[in-house]
Amino acid sequence: MKKIIDKDIHWGVLGVGNVCEVKSAPAMNLIPNSRLVAVMRRSEEKVRDYAERHQVPKWYTSAEELVNDPEVNAVYIATPPNAHLELTKLAAKAGKPVYVEKPMARTFAECQEMIAVCEDVGVRLYVAYYRRALPHFLKIKELIKEGELGEIRTVHIDLKQVLIPELVAKIDNNWRVDPEIAGGGFFFDLASHQLDLLDFFFGPIAKAQGFATNQAKAYEAEDIVCGSFVFESGVVGTGNWCFTTSKVSEIDKITIYGSKGKISFETFGKGEFVLERDNHETMYYQVDLPHHIQQPLIKTVVDDLLGLGECPSTGISGARTNWVMDRLVGKGF
């Protein structure tokens, strides 16, 4: 494996919001050969507070200043999706590899631009689809590969949530339901994890089509999506997502059906899943998830850059998920 960086990875983070409090950035100091050295946010008060609480040596209110800091040799973009393309270009042109939050961008077209600019200057591009590195999902992938389900026939995603008015109120942090910022609504925020995980299990999706609408009119983005998709491997899938349902209808469940059995799990729950097979006892699996949920994936990024391993979530795979989402909501087609 080729080493990209000859010394320890010194991270600079653009946009230290909520995702950087526990999920991601603190893990950078817990991984061997990795260190968080600089953070950036436009609000001086907020970025200074973050740096002091997390003991980060440097802070900036300018993305350009952080990216051009000679000590920073890898950039984590933790902003909302509307800034991902611009900031990826900025970091890539400075010759620094990029780890970008999910979804990778607002559209597949923006993802393609991000890939192109990184390829042009020869820097690595990774996407924070961290479920690809979590232990229970790795175990599911192993069971599929070992043939415990037989031949995989189909997979179904069912995600339904209640509408929480305070989460979609017209306040500063409602970007997840603003299509101009997020690319769509909660579908783009949450279904992206699910579709990417299925890409990890079964490979790329070759065809996808769907319907999206805004039934409740609580915000501008779509609030319900239904669709179907076919993987290059021949597996067929369906999905039903609704973000304005009743409390008793709430569900987070993916079921993988094979010729010998099925596996069911939550995408956003605990590290658990259930394996059911013909003529076998039902098996219940449970593992402890890391406190910093992105730590396993970030470690693969560090290892990849140091030539010690390979990261399973790249710009190429991340863009595929955007392509599927665009197809399912009818965007640009």
Question: What descriptive keywords fit this protein?
Answer:
27% strand; 333 residues; six-stranded parallel sheet; 2 domains; eight-stranded mixed sheet
Kindly summarize this structure in a few lines.
This protein has 333 residues and is an alpha/beta fold. It has helices at residues 44-54, 63-67, 84-93, 108-121, 135-145, 165-168, 179-182, 186-202, 295-305, 315-329; strands at residues 9-14, 34-40, 58-60, 74-77, 98-100, 125-127, 152-162, 205-213, 224-231, 236-245, 251-258, 261-265, 271-277, 283-287. The longest helix is centred in the middle third of the chain and has 17 residues, at 186-202.
Descriptive report:
The protein is of the alpha/beta class and 333 residues long. The protein folds into 2 domains: 123 residues, NAD(P)-binding Rossmann-like Domain (Rossmann fold); 155 residues, Dihydrodipicolinate Reductase, domain 2. The protein has 10 helices and 14 strands. The strands form 2 sheets. Strands 8-9-10-7-11-12-13-14 form an 8-stranded mixed beta sheet, with helices on one face. The longest helix is centred in the middle third of the chain and has 17 residues. It is globular and about 60 Å long. The two termini are 39 Å apart. The mean pLDDT is 95.
What CATH architecture of the largest domain would you give?
Answer: 2-Layer Sandwich
Give the percentage of residues in beta strands.
25-35%
Please write the CATH class name of the largest domain.
Alpha Beta
- Care to count the β-strands? 14
The rough form would be described as: globular
Strand order in space, largest sheet:
8-9-10-7-11-12-13-14
> How many structural domains does the protein architecture include?
2
Low-confidence stretches: none
As a whole number of angstroms, the C-alpha radius of gyration is 20 Å
Class based on secondary structure composition and strand pairing: alpha/beta
Distance between the termini: 39 Å
Q: Kindly report the CATH topology of the largest domain.
A: Dihydrodipicolinate Reductase, domain 2
- The percent of residues in helical segments reads 25-40%
Whole-number mean pLDDT: 95
- Number of distinct helices: 10
The major beta sheet can be summarized as: 8 strands, mixed
Please state the oligomeric state of the protein chains shown. single chain
